[in-house]
Amino acid sequence: MAGNASKKGKVVLAYSGGLDTSVAVVWLSEQGYDVVTMTADVGQEVIDLEAAKSKSLHSGSVKAYIFDLKKTFVENFVWPSLKANGMYQGTYPLTSALSRPLIAKTLVDIANKEGAAAVAHGCTGKGQDQVRIEVCANALNPKLDVLAPVRDWHFSREAEMQYAIDHGIPVKATAASPYSIDENLWGRSIECGLLEDPWNEPPEDAYELTANPLTAPDAPDYVEVSFEKGIPVALDGEKMDGVKLILALNKLAGKHGVGRVDMVEDRLVGFKSREVYECPAPIALINAHRALETMTLDKRVLAAKKELEVKFAELAYEGYWYSPLKNCIEAFVNETQQYVNGTVKLRLFKGQAVVRGMKASKSIYKHDLATYSEGDAFDHSAAVGFIKIWGLPIKTWTSTFPTQDKTELPIEV
User: Fold this and answer.
1) Residue 252 to residues 37, 44, 83, 349, 350: CA-CA distances in angstroms?
2) Which of 287, 298, 311 is nearest to 363 (CA)?
């Protein structure tokens, strides 16, 4: 290890235990930093926090923090996004994008505690996670430098592996995956390989959370999702915390092939990218949440909220989680959600999560106003005056400027 490790002070590195961040520990040490690592469990399929800590220290870090952040992730990032029906470009439920502001905040919190001069991440210069982490870190502590070793060192993969071997960093001799994978509790993203050509259908080996809808069970499953203030709190009447509920719904909806997303996405860094996602629980929950809002929110509130949902998703996607506008939108959303209480029945079948029923103790849907049967409380006589007033502007215009409708109908009059 470099002898001048303390010259530049401490740097807190987001550390996964993989090749890139393990090499980054050594590289940053050689640049003159004391490296403190932070490893977070946000619901990755396989992560051993203690093993990551041990490897970090073996690679030369001076301290290694490990955190189980699944509960924090759900309560402070996933649920706010769900309440806003967060879907970037109407399609992507912000799976990876939601974990980055949490990672950035944890890095900054440790940096503040340790008196560090900088934080660091393992993102490349082409990805958008570098933007998210750096913008979020700058928003939380503008005085911290943000370093990106992988972006700066320009190692080839082979040179990086040799560097690791030369410095005694364990390297797993496994065949490289043809895909770039990122996952957390809210979903899984799959990139690269055959997927870079939008003409290619995603191979089945790209998927792990979802069954092929074509070969999924031939009988549907029904599940009832209960919400309190816009947050799902129970499945089929069984109360669950957020982590358990998402895991259960990922498994159930995934069994039926729900949650496969295949899109050409406008990336933050300026180009279009073909992206494949698996998000069983997000798709099911957003469908249910949107449906319940139609029963419990006013028409104009719904319309305004839909416009703000687009902006919320863009801000989250673009790394502006800690921004004034996002905070203002979230305040509006939270005000609406006090009314979103009830239960939605979903049918999970062949890749779809379809709403098949909903109920709310306090609903704007009133049966006595909607029914055409006995008990109809609607005042039919009021329609005459309403139509006269509603149509008066059009009637006034056409009486002043007669309109000649030249549409030719395919019939003789």
Assistant:
1) 36, 18, 22, 10, 12
2) 298
Q: Is 156 a catalytic residue?
A: no
Are 96 and 233 part of one and the same domain? no
**Residue 6 is among the residues annotated as catalytic for this protein:** no
Q: How far is CA 21 from the centre of its chain?
A: 24
Residues 6+ apart with CB under 8 A from 393: none
pLDDT per residue as tens, the chain (413 positions): 444 444 789 999 999 988 889 999 999 999 999 999 999 999 997 788 999 999 999 999 999 999 999 999 999 999 999 999 999 999 999 999 999 999 999 999 999 999 999 999 998 887 889 999 999 999 999 999 999 998 888 777 778 888 888 888 876 645 566 788 899 999 999 988 889 999 999 999 999 999 999 999 999 999 999 999 999 999 999 999 999 999 999 999 999 999 999 999 999 888 999 999 999 999 999 999 999 999 999 999 999 999 999 999 999 999 999 999 999 999 999 999 999 999 999 999 999 999 999 999 899 988 888 888 888 888 899 999 999 999 999 999 999 988 777 778 887 76
Against a cut of 0.90, is the pTM above it? Answer: yes
Burial of 153 (0-12, 13-18, 19+ CB in 10 A): middle
Q: List the catalytic residue out of 180, 266, 368, 376.
A: 180
Residues 132 and 197 in one domain: no
Tell me how many domains the chain contains.
Answer: 3
User: Do 270 and 134 share a structural domain?
Assistant: no
Task: Based on the residue annotation, tell me whether 180 is a catalytic residue of this protein.
Answer: yes
List the catalytic residue out of 100, 132, 188, 260: 100
Q: Which of 142, 64, 77, 82 is nearest to 103 (CA)?
A: 77
CATH classification of the domain holding 75: 3.40.50.620
Range of the domain at 104: 10-166
For residues 45 and 76, membership in a common domain is answered with yes
In a domain, 34, yes or no: yes
Q: Are residues 44 and 147 in the same domain?
A: yes
